[in-house]
Amino acid sequence: MIDCASSTANWRNEIASSNGNSRRLWQTLQNVLGEATNDDAEVNIAEDFAVFFRDKVESVRASTMTIPPHDVRHRLTPTLQRWTPVTIAEVERLNSSAPCKTCQLDPVPTWLIKDMKSWLSPFIALLFNKSRWLPAVFHKISRMQWLNHV
Description:
- By secondary structure, the chain is mostly helical.
- It folds into two domains: about 5-60, no CATH class; about 90-150, no CATH class.
- It contains seven helices and no strands.
- The chain has helices at about 5-15, 20-35, 40-65, 90-95, 110-115, 115-130, 135-150.
- Helix 4 (about 90-95) packs across helix 6.
- The longest helix has 26 residues, at about 40-65.
- The relative contact order is 0.06.
């Protein structure tokens, strides 16, 4: 019967003794997990991936070789030449009018942002007003919301 406490202490000592050596740490962790280390297998995996990737690129090129290049016509796109700074009241109004929808990718639920709007709106307004590209995004969003209400 193996003494769990001494085995655990042994693995902890091994991990601690790696002392910044990431290669040794990974080897120790692989041993803890019971995975055999085989450098040849790692090389083969890398070579197999390189061969797969090269073959995939060649396959895509071969299948699209007969398709004529897409003609992308130049067109003028609107640009935002002047920017009127956003006010805290505008940020609060847009925040209030946003739908209460949340998905798993949202770092913060919409209801929480709406609930904290009096704290967040001054910061968001400052962020937008100091940014070079956010005003264009804000302008587009507010225009889209305005068009949706018309």
